[in-house]
Write a structure and sequence with these properties.
The chain is of the alpha/beta class and 394 residues long. Helix content is 35%, strand content 16%. It contains 13 helices and 13 strands. The protein has a seven-stranded parallel β-sheet with strand order 3-2-1-4-5-6-7, sandwiched between helices. A six-stranded parallel β-sheet has the order 10-9-8-11-12-13, with helices on both faces. The chain is globular, with a radius of gyration of 22 Å.
Length: 394
């Protein structure tokens, strides 16, 4: 098939600035390049770091870049907003990306257009192409509560969701839905390997005797990091329990910290060197940092659709503390994870399970083995293979 892929209009593909959606897109594009399944054109925002990326040499995948950040592009975006604000579904910067993409799509004849996490794009695309429209949903972007939900749903040929949780959200539009299929995310199990060399504990101010908890990902209120630090404060008498917080408030290497991270640092002040903030860490180095830890904590207090940070922790053979929110229970089992409810006792319970696992290394050993075994279900090749099967399954 001849397929067009519309990315989110925010971060570039290849994922030179990170982003879970963009990394997952890279995985199935890599698979398509290896197996020469389809002729694919990817529409993405431009970034200077993409120019030397080896993915651009693919014979099966072709990249069409849209300039959205140069001074000239910013002026054009403003003009677009002034003249088209009455028909904008998303923020005007995203709508501008879509408009520039449509200009090229009008010239082409695609069999299918795959829309990454922007189902609202279909409202305009359905009027300019006869291609089948497929949505790949990573978040709650399509439910009975969103604007023009039925129009967007009806325009879809196929809807792929990252979890059964998101599938259920889509089915609030149509309880008899037969368009939607779940394809669980995958990760690179060769990169996130149990055999990688751990980063130096001493470089982080940790010792070999310390019990290290690791949080990785976006550092924001929804991820439960504040509650995690509150739990650490309840464990102030256990000086060997340390917390490593990996990530920033957005994607890429930000210089400035937002107000939430500043509040986290204030909350962590009584713990002194027992809480270490790394800031942004390049994705390629994440396995080394995770390997340093004893336990991974993913304390999401929102309905996280299917966080890849859980899969990364599995692959590194880490016991996991996490929550019964969103699609997270689809990723883990009771053998490798402790699932908590985000109720009024959440912080107290989190502190209790941390202390329990700290005191019982035999439990950690069994959980580590179960995590490593579970991770084999989420290989990126399995993900990509299932993804392309879903495109052809109707």
């Amino acid at each position: 098939m001849k397929i067009a892929i519309l990315t989110s209009g925010i971060l570039p593909v290849p994922a030179v600035q990170g982003g879970a959606v963009e990394n997952l897109t890279d995985f199935y594009l890599e698979y398509n390049d290896q197996h020469q399944l389809h002729d694919i054109t990817i529409y993405s925002v431009w970034h200077p770091d993409v120019e030397k990326h080896p993915a651009l040499h693919s014979k099966a995948n072709h990249f069409h870049y849209i300039d959205v950040n140069s001074p000239f592009a910013k002026i054009r975006k403003r003009i677009f907003h002034w003249t088209h604000h009455h028909e904008e579904y998303y923020h005007y910067t995203i709508e501008y990306f879509l408009q520039e993409t449509i200009k090229d799509i009008r010239k082409k004849q695609y069999d299918m257009i795959l829309i990454e996490n922007r189902p609202g794009f279909a409202l305009k695309l359905r009027n300019v192409t006869k291609a089948k429209l497929v949505y790949h949903l990573h978040n709650e972007k399509l439910s009975s509560q969103v604007a023009q939900a039925h129009d967007i749903y009806n325009a879809a040929y196929r809807i792929i969701t990252v979890s059964d949780y998101i599938k259920g959200i889509v089915q609030t539009i149509n309880v008899n839905d037969n368009k939607t299929i779940t394809i669980h995310n995958g990760i690179d199990l060769k990169a996130f390997s149990f055999d990688v060399k751990p980063a130096s504990r001493s470089s982080m101010g940790f010792s070999d005797e310390d019990f290290i908890l690791v949080f990785s990902g976006r550092v924001n209120q929804e991820k439960g990091v504040m509650e995690l630090i509150e739990a650490m404060n309840q464990l102030s008498n256990f000086s060997n329990i340390k917390l490593l917080i990996i990530g920033s408030s957005f994607f890429g290497n930000e210089v400035k910290e937002d107000d939430f991270i500043k509040r986290l640092r204030i909350k962590a002040e009584p713990l002194k060197n027992r809480v270490v903030f790394t800031g942004f860490i390049p994705y390629a180095q994440m396995p080394n940092y995770l390997k340093m830890a004893d336990v991974a904590v993913i304390p999401s207090v929102w309905d996280d659709p299917f966080p890849t940070t859980v899969l990364e922790a599995l692959a590194m053979g880490l016991p996991i503390f996490t929550t019964r929110r969103g699609g997270i229970p689809e990723e883990v089992t009771e053998e490798n994870a402790i699932l908590l409810t985000t109720d009024e006792q959440f912080v107290d319970n989190l502190a209790s399970v941390i202390l329990d696992l700290y005191k019982h290394p035999e439990k950690r050993k069994l959980m580590r083995e179960a995590s490593f075994k579970r991770s084999k279900l989420f290989d990126k090749e399995r993900y990509a293979c299932d993804f392309f099967k879903a495109l052809n399954s109707m």
